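Handout, section B. The chain below has 162 residues.
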Amino acid sequence: MSNKREDYISWDEYFMGVTMLSAQRSKDPSTQVGACIVSQDNKILSMGYNGLPIGCSDDEFPWEKDDETPEHSKYFYSTHSELNAILNYRGGSLDGTKLYVTLFPCNECAKACIQAGIKTIIYADDKYDGTPSVIASKRMLNAAGVVYRRYQHTGREITLYL
């Protein structure tokens, strides 16, 4: 009888890897974000990435980020990865699930996570920490008892050949 392999990746590495791979589907030229919702027994329930709603052409809507007019700003049209993952789920309840995400959720996505019943958020980056959106997000998550923590990078490198 042979011994099992010992150098396999952890659940956190696995699910964060899935979110990073999912983020690569985003057409956004400046920020690609991926999300993965996981059950309490470590089964992937849904995934999402930031992009336009189904039926809205990636070629006909804007991708600029600094314009305040609907004709030129992606913010009026794109859906964040967390909300896409929640909306993509076709099962029952998401109560008690974990969300892996490459970027800390904004206040709007935090509201959706709370309402969906997500209880744990593991994020890779918090580059907007201290902004009004993230301050509000953390306040709501704390009030709702949602646990969040930064993913601890292991330094492991995984190469995919496609």
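Note. The two ends are 34 Å apart (CA to CA). Compare this with the example in section A.
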